Amino acid sequence: MANININRLQSPYLREFFEDVFDGTTALEGLSVQDDKATNPISFATSAPVNAVASQGTLTMDTQPTAGDTMTVGATTYTFTTDGTADEEGEIDVGADLADAKTLVVAAINGTDGNNTANATVSAAAFSGDDCVLSAKTKGTAGDAIVTTETFTAETNVFDATTLGTTTAGVDSTTAVKGQMYVDASYLYCSIAASTVSTTNWRRVTLGAAY
User: Fold this and answer.
1) Domain range for residue 18?
2) With bands split at pLDDT 50, 70 and 90, how would you rate the model's confidence at 53?
3) Regarding beta strands 70-73 and 202-206, do their DSSP bridges make them parallel or antiparallel, or are they unpaired?
4) Is 90 left (phi over 0), alpha (psi -120 to 50) or beta?
5) 130-182: per-residue pLDDT in tens?
6) CA–CA separation, 204 vs 171, rounded Å?
7) How far is CA 75 from the centre of its chain?
8) Is 62 helix (H, G, I), strand (E, B) or coil?
């Protein structure tokens, strides 16, 4: 990436050009601008940087599970047992009824049921109706490969896909060093810390009107 120190430009025409860049009139790609003490580049690009998004999938459960049913989330396989008998890692009681079973499923995945540790790669939101949204704990496209499969007796108890990413596809963040900035026609973007594919460190401010 080429670097230009605006403060050292002698030509008024070049200064005017870069003023247009700063106020959004002109967008450049593959260019960085530095002041006298600058250590962080401003990268002018026609597209904005993005923050990482977690992969999500949905478990639909409209029927109380049957003892012996299983579901696999990431590297963990959960087996449903007769209500009140779950006592080992990976076991979930079928519950007193459907509502109880839903609560137990969420608690098992999140490690709050007193029987299971939290799933290493996925967290579960409370059921909304018959649907439970599972989210990858690490954001980015890698979450789209997390396994979600089931062997429920009730055929309507299913995941929306065999991996996460159908409810919400994972998105990788634009990588950057701390302090790196981008600008487009509407916003100035800054990475407030080093950005990797799984972070959400990008912030933006509106360029506003000329003054």
Assistant:
1) 2-51+173-206
2) very high
3) unpaired
4) left
5) 999 999 999 999 999 999 999 999 999 999 999 999 999 999 999 998 888 89
6) 18
7) 19
8) coil
Is 165 inside a domain boundary? no
In a domain, 32, yes or no: yes
Q: Which two tokens stand for residue 183?
A: 């600008």
Is the pTM of the predicted complex or chain greater than 0.85?
no
Distance of alpha carbon 195 from alpha carbon 94, whole angstroms: 42
Please check whether residue 78 is in contact with residue 61, taking contact to mean a CB–CB distance below 8 angstroms.
Answer: no
List for the chain the helix, strand, coil content (%; round to 5): 15, 30, 55
CA distances from 14 to 18, 45, 54 (A): 6, 18, 43
* Domains held by the chain: number: 2
Q: Give the residue ranges of DSSP H helices in the chain.
A: 12-22, 98-110
- Alpha-carbon separation of residue 185 from 10, 17, 44, 207 (angstroms): 26, 14, 10, 8
Beta bridge partners of residue 151, listed in sequence order: 70
- 66-98 pLDDT, tens per residue? 999 999 999 999 999 999 999 999 999 999 999
Per-residue pLDDT reduced to its tens digit, 185-202: 889 999 999 999 999 999
